[in-house]
Amino acid sequence: MKKIVILTGAGMSVESGLATFRGGGGLWDNYPVEQVATPEGFAANPSLVLEFYNKRRVELLGVAPNEGHRLVASLEEKYDVTVVTQNVDDLHERAGSTSVIHLHGELMKVCSSRNPGDLRYVRTLQPSAPTIKMGDLAADGSQLRPFIVWFGEAVPLMEDAVVAMRDIDAFIIIGTSLNVYPAAGLLHYAPAGVPIYLIDPNDVAAVLPSNVVHIRNGASEGMRRLIDTYLADF
Ligand code: OAD
């Protein structure tokens, strides 16, 4: 079975109704990133940070996977697929993808603020109780925090993502500005000569290898074109 890795970013979930981070109206325009997505921001004002992710969780529960997520999942019928996502939403899983690496954490999960990387203290919140507040404690007695990789923190699953890139037959990138490392660096682990497809309606500022085929569409339309045109004989 041919092996495909798909790297996704915020653009993957735009057609589901979730905002991107950068660009006009992006999340970081309304919420300063250093306040809500760094350990320093959490130390300075933990309630504000908990509230920000509580809102994101409630928002996530009100949206559904889009056609793009479903087409990504459908590739598993023919190929050995690993999705490596920078998204903290669970829309790939809800669309049926079975192998998803969440580089930047998962919105529906919470963890210890003393040992954020210790999986023993990670808990999944139920849709019926999707918020946490100050005083809610992890099993190690510390304040619960969102299970999100903030800027300045390690990205423990990057190694798994790099391993998934070995021996791939195609690499697909959907809806990421390729601004944030180490995730963006995954591109450079694609073995030489492997076809690389980029689905994004806009220009991507990153310097891309010359063999990248840029499909200038949104995630759903772009996935349809990719499957019908480029993967037709693959
Ligand atoms: P960005 O907001 O930086 O980029 C989103 C990309 O999606 C842009 O290139 C858009 O052109 C594209 N896009 C917009 N609409 C689209 C559509 N309908 N279909 C496909 N693509 C579309 O988001 P990311 O690259 O995901 O990290 O950002 C990376 C990381 O930065 C995030 O995981 C987050 C953020 O800070 C953390 O919170 C740690």
Task: Provide the descriptors you would attach to this structure in a database record.
26% helix, binds 2'-O-acetyl adenosine-5-diphosphoribose, SIR2/SIRT2 'Small Domain', alpha/beta, 2 domains, Rossmann fold
Report on this model:
The chain is of the alpha/beta class and 234 residues long. It folds into two domains: 1-18 and 65-104 and 154-234, TPP-binding domain (Rossmann fold, 3-Layer(aba) Sandwich); 20-62 and 106-148, SIR2/SIRT2 'Small Domain'. The protein is built from eight helices and nine strands. The chain has helices at 27-30, 33-36, 39-44, 46-61, 67-74, 91-95, 158-164, 219-230; strands at 3-8, 80-85, 100-102, 105-112, 123-124, 144-148, 170-174, 196-199, 212-215. The strands form two sheets. Strands 3-2-1-7-8-9 form a six-stranded parallel beta sheet, with helices on both faces. Strands 5-4-6 form a three-stranded antiparallel beta sheet, with helices on one face. Helix 6 links the parallel strand 2 (80-85) and strand 3 (100-102). Helix 5 (67-74) runs parallel beside helix 8 (219-230). The longest helix has 16 residues, at 46-61. It is globular. The relative contact order is 0.19. It binds 2'-O-acetyl adenosine-5-diphosphoribose. 2'-O-acetyl adenosine-5-diphosphoribose is lined by residues 9-11, 14-15, 20-22, 26, 37, 86, 104, 149, 151, 174-177, 179-180, 199-202, 204, 218-219.
How are the elements arranged and paired?
Blueprint: E1 3-8, H1 27-30, H2 33-36, H3 39-44, H4 46-61, H5 67-74, E2 80-85, H6 91-95, E3 100-102, E4 105-112, E5 123-124, E6 144-148, H7 158-164, E7 170-174, E8 196-199, E9 212-215, H8 219-230
Parallel strand pairs: 1-2, 1-7, 2-3, 7-8, 8-9
Antiparallel strand pairs: 4-5, 4-6
The structure holds 2'-O-acetyl adenosine-5-diphosphoribose.
